[in-house]
Amino acid sequence: MVTFAPSLMCMDLGKIKEQFSIMDNYMDIYHVDIMDGHFCKNMALTPGILKSFRENTEKEMDVHLMTTNPADWIEMCAQAGATYISPHAETINTDAFRTMQLIQNLGCKCGVVLNPATPLSYVESYLEYIDMLTIMTVDIGFAGQKFIEQMYEKIRQAKELREKKGYHYKIQIDGHCNKENYRQLTEAGADVLVVGNAGLFGLDKDLDTACKKMEREYEQCMLEKAV
């Protein structure tokens, strides 16, 4: 079974303590989107909000940096409690090794994120150092977009390359993950699925009920495969 990573930009930020007390019963990792309004034409969470999250949970936090200059954010995120720090490959390929070293020196795990139009080959020279490879299955910045079907092949390629080379990265999928594609994503090789409104928070007004429904929907999708 895959691991679910709730996208915390979709949670009720007025009920942080209450919602983490519920989600911690179901989740092992959370997804934190930080956008600068430049690389990504939207704004979301901040290192300050990440610190508030960390005060309410001990579970892992993957920080997705949708920022033009990730180096400006890495130390703040590490100090705020990030477990993984995942900048976009499109923003670090002039200093990827230095960026990864900075992340590691701050005590965090290294991630990297690929936009849908960016091929896996773009990061192949440093995949052996990566702990989390995030494949975007929608264009960045806005919820509710249609899943890009061509990304299944990129997921399969990432899994095959990991097995061939003996790499250790987890394959995380970000973008419109829900019951429409749980089975296909799992079969392609996904390890972690980022769930937002469609996959979790919009399933029920009661968050505990929504978490249970998310798990049932996944199990049902996998049972349908077996049948």
Summing up helix and strand content along with how strands pair, one would put the structural category as alpha/beta
N/C terminus separation: 17 Å
Report mean pLDDT, rounded to a whole number.
94
The amount of helix comes to 25-40%
SS element count, helices = 9
Strand content: 15-25%
- Secondary-structure element order, as H and E? EHEHEHEHHEEHEHEHH
Poorly predicted parts: none
Strand order of the largest sheet: 1-8-7-6-5-4-3-2
User: Which descriptor suits the 3D outline?
Assistant: globular
> Number of DSSP strands?
8
Using only C-alpha atoms, the radius of gyration works out to 17 Å
Largest beta sheet, briefly? 8 strands, parallel
Throw out a few tags for this protein.
single chain; 227 residues; alpha/beta; 9 helices; 8 strands
